Structure formats: C-alpha cells, structure tokens
Q: What sequence folds into this?
C-alpha cells in the first residue's frame, strides 16, 4: 500500500511538472500584448522610456522575464515600427500576430479582439462591451510612422491640450472604413490627453507592447 501511494504521488508530481513546463514554454513565447492597465494619467506615460518600463513591469509581473520590451508608440522623433524589432510576434497563448514588420502593417496581420490579449492572456473589451476600451495609443500612421503632433507631447501630457492618434484593437468602428478597422491609426483623441478624454472616445490609456528580440 505504501509503495502504491508513493507511485501515485510520484506520478502526480510528474504530471504537475509537465503542466508547469508547458505553461512556462507558452509564457516564454509571448512577445506581444496589450497593456492590461494604463498609467492612470491619460496619455502621460512618462515619455517613451516610461512606456517601455510599463511594458516590462507588466510582463515581469505576468512571469515573463529576460526580454526587452518596447511600447508601440511613435514620438516626434521616432517611428513606432522602428522600436519593436523584426518579429515574429506571439500573444500570451502562443498565437502568431505577425511574421515581420511588413505583415504587421498589412491586412494580413493577426490582430483581432480575440488575439490582442493582455500580458495575462485576457481579452480587452471592444466596441459593444461596457465599458468600451478598444482605443490604443499609437501616435502613428497605418504604416507605423509617426504623426508628430498627435503624440500628446511625446507621451508626457495629461490635460485638455494635445491629441493622440489611436487604433482599434478589435478592428471595429462606427463604419466599414479602413480607418475604423485599423489597429494602429483609426482616429485622434477628442478633448485632449487626459484620462477623461481617452475614456470618452472608448479608450483607457492602453497601448501595445512588443518584445524587441
């Protein structure tokens, strides 16, 4: 009986190890996510460095370490597409988002409401949900290059002044136009860069994070 119990216990431990190993492998593959929370200060992210640090902090809290994370944000001097490496990129469930920069900035990318997951592997509310949180800060054109005057002062502003270009992570808007369906360049914020202004357009100060490697 004692030997049987030891065998059962050993099998259980082995099963847990296999499960943990699979989870670790899946987590280690994650190289793209939507921030589960913003800075809480609207579009004031502490600049690009602050946004990158926010990405890293969320990833590490989710158990993904050893990677360099950059926010998909343009500034007056940098293009978002030049900040995120060459790909490929995978979400928290191991689903491929894009092979490279060309596919990421084409209609062939895999970004949808179901795949643009947070670092925790959670789906973010989109159009039709309450509250709607589908607006993602980018400051970018569809090709990932900068719109210098739509970056909320290079991500340091949180008041009634300024504006930010945003995309829809759920690829859904008020109509069937290309802009409404754009993940990175749909429309600007209305009423400035404050948390209230972002919420008023369906956002919460969230943005995309990519692993550079």
A:
């Amino acid at each position: 009986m004692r030997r049987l119990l030891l065998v059962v216990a050993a099998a259980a431990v082995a099963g847990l190890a296999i499960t943990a190993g699979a989870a670790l492998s899946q987590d280690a593959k994650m190289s793209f996510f939507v921030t589960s929370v913003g800075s809480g200060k609207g579009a004031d992210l502490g600049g690009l460095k602050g946004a990158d640090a926010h990405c890293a902090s969320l990833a590490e809290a989710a158990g993904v370490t050893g990677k360099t994370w950059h926010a998909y944000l343009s500034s007056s001097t940098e293009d978002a597409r030049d900040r995120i490496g060459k790909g490929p990129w995978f979400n928290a469930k191991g689903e491929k988002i894009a092979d490279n920069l060309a596919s990421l900035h084409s209609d062939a990318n895999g970004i949808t409401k179901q795949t643009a997951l947070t670092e925790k592997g959670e789906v973010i509310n989109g159009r039709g949900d309450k509250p709607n949180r589908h607006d993602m800060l980018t400051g970018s054109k569809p090709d990932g290059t900068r719109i210098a005057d739509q970056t909320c002062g290079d991500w340091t502003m949180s008041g009634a002044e300024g504006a930010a270009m945003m995309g829809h992570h759920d690829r859904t808007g008020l109509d069937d136009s290309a802009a409404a369906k754009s993940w990175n360049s749909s429309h600007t914020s209305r009423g400035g860069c404050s948390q209230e202004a972002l919420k008023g357009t369906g956002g919460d100060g969230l943005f995309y994070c990519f692993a550079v490697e």
In short: The domain at 31-211 is CATH 3.10.100.10 (Mannose-Binding Protein A; Chain A). The longest strand covers residues 203-211. Strands lie at 32-34, 69-71, 89-90, 96-98, 135-137, 165-168, 187-188, 203-211. The helical segments are 2-29, 47-61, 101-104, 152-155, 195-200.
